[in-house]
Amino acid sequence: MSLNQSLTLPPRVSDRAFARLAEIAEDTGEVKALRVAVNGGGCSGFQYDIRFDAPAPDDLVLEHSGQQVLIDPVSLPFLQNAVIDFTEELIGARFVIENPNASSSCGCGISFSI
Description:
alpha+beta; Hypothetical Protein Aq_1857, Chain: A; six-stranded mixed beta sheet; three-stranded mixed beta sheet; 2 helices; 17% helix; 41% strand
């Protein structure tokens, strides 16, 4: 194993993000998995696609207390070592990605470049 391989970790989901998923499940009466994907586009080259979805057979499933976050194999390299979090600010509440692979991001926090 090379040094770079030992430093590459899958994304991590914060306790706050899992807690928000549990709140959504309680409010709606149904448990839904949160998909975090990376697509080409946006003002910086790549953009996050964060939505509720059903698991696919090849997804990485990050699970805690019955809540799931899904990442497809194409998006996974872009999200290595990232943290999926939930934030509440004056402008609103949302899931956010703290991504050490992004060299820059736009003000909206959805678009980034590598």
